[in-house]
Amino acid sequence: MWQRAAAIAAKAPPERNRVVDLLRAVSILAVVVGHWLVAAPYVENGAVTGGHLLGIAPWTQWLTWLFQVMPLFFLVGGFSNGVSWAASQRGGGNWPDWFASRVRRLIAPVLPLFLVWTLFALFGTVLGVERGIVKMAAQLALIPVWFLAVYLIVTALSPLSHAAWRRAGFLSVVLLMAGAAAVDMASLHFGVPYVNFANFLFVWLAIHQLGYAWSEERFAGRGRALAMGLAGLAALAMLVRFGPYPVAMIGVPGAELSNSMPPTLALLALGVAQAGIALALEPALKRWLARERVWTGVVMVNGMIMTIYLWHLTAFVAVITGAWLMGGIGLHAVPASGDWWLARPVWFALYIALTLPLVALFVRFESPGREAVDPRQVPHWRLVTGLAMICLGLAMTAAISIASPLGVTGVRLWVVALPFVGAALIRFGPVYRLAKR
């Protein structure tokens, strides 16, 4: 893998912004570490209790200001989508072809994960495993897919958001921020139901727009980027101190408000802070990435980043299940206690040891090859319908799980089917060929 990454790294054009690849890798790896840290199951009265570190030790909620780095991924997404869409337009490309290729790269690694956990839920039910346990395991392992649903929608809107950027520049960012503030006001002050879900678009599109600005070098020089970062950090501190927003940038069990599901103005402020600080460090990061070994490592991680992200909680569930089957070994320490913290390196080593073979097995789906793409243009109606089905399936998977407490199979087959059928509609390689047969 290192030799293959070295060959790819050597071919990178000199004008490529390597910081984009670095931030993509760092953001996903930070999410992985955060998930492994925050999930804190332990044995209590002979049964495994699904502990949550942020609820057990409230002081750890401040750590989410470092580990909630999804804003950086949307910043990178804006950069990449902006460059790619602009290049497509210059070459006479169209939205269906451009977006179909983006969907294929994002959804291809997800389908094997769905298949594996569908089989687990099905055979676990048949073998008599308690359905509550099957559901909890499947839902925990598949939580990461919610992010892809949002990212796909934001990517689908790239032609519109990019046109808005070209026309209005930073005003388009300000308007999206104002929209996020208005949504929070309507939801938190006036109690308007469901309106807060609009911030899945307002918040993430605003960060995505900053990626367009970055791609056009609108943050050249560290002064503007650093000022933006400090302003975002100051705004975040004020929102948490004087507003209704909690410290934690992710959901905490039992909390009245989550800053991430759906996102709030506080999470947007964190995103602005992270973007500004990261871009202020860009010159130093570029010098560091000029080192051959460093750049090769970044390329290697990027080549399997989605596979790592999608399978890291499957490895987590497998390790915890194995410990429980061996009499709860290692699960008796109370989360956030001294013994619990001292044991984290051992647990992380186990998670990594199981994640690596999963990545080696499934990384091939991250780059399935050009021959898997149907060369004909996808009709708009199929592209939009397929996108809707994929996103609904991913959202329902995270929200209610593919495992069902009722029925014969123990699987919500309609939830499982949605991403596969949606991918087939967009003529996603092997799925489309299977549908044709």
Any overview of this molecule?
- With 437 residues, the protein is an all-alpha fold.
- It has one domain.
- Helix content is 70%, strand content 1%.
- A two-stranded antiparallel ribbon has the order 1-2.
- Strand 1 and strand 2 form a beta hairpin.
- Helix 2 packs parallel to helix 17, helix 8 packs antiparallel against helix 17 and helix 13 packs antiparallel against helix 14.
- The protein is globular, with a radius of gyration of 22 Å.
- The C terminus is likely disordered.
Number of strands: 2
Radius of gyration: 22 Å
Number of helices: 21
Low-confidence stretches: 429-437
Helix content: 55-70%
Query: Beta-sheet strand percentage?
Result: under 5%
State the oligomer.
Answer: single chain
Order of helices and strands: HHEEHHHHHHHHHHHHHHHHHHH
Question: Structural class, from helix and strand content?
Answer: mainly alpha
What characteristic shape results from the CA principal axes? globular
Distance between the termini: 35 Å
Mean pLDDT: 88
Biggest beta sheet attributes? 2 strands, antiparallel
* Overall tally of structural domains: 1
Lateral strand order in the biggest sheet: 1-2
